[in-house]
Amino acid sequence: MDPLDAEGTALERSGGQANRRTWQKKAVLDALTTCADFVSAQRLHRMMEDEGTAIGLSTVYRQLNALADSGRADTIRLDGRQMFRICNDDDHHHHLVCERCGRTVEIEPPDEEWVRAVAGRYGFTATSHTVEVFGLCPACARIVSTASA
Question: What's the distance, Cα to Cα, between the start and end of the chain in Å?
């Protein structure tokens, strides 16, 4: 059982320090878990409010960023917006993301040798990498094609 702080809020131990486990953190985590694709804080906030959860947008932002900082959520920038997605495994992974609807597919990572070779070609030493491929999913490509015809 987790110890309680002065207000009776459960504390989690992580990396030697206590983190508050509030109802807001649980609510944001639960809501994000229901989203298969990347979602903005604004959209998640609207979904939560539509389901009857009274929570501030700034709280949703704060909790999403805390989840990303802890590695429990992935985050990308899409059209200037920060997007979030629950991270269900600890393995290093990459995404193919529809830039119109946010649909997300996990893809195979590039070969580590390729990463080192590309970095070396420019005099870099690779310490980590992130690969996000952006484009249009089949459904959005059809919509865009139909609209421009």
Answer: 61
Hey, what CATH class is 89-149 in? alpha beta
**Is it the case that residue 11 has pLDDT exceeding 60?**
no
pLDDT given at position 120 = 96
Question: Would you say 85 and 44 are in contact if contact means Cβ atoms under 8 Å apart?
Answer: no
CATH code at 1-88 = 1.10.10.10
User: What's the pTM value of the predicted model, to 2 decimals?
Assistant: 0.67
Tokens of 140: 């959005």
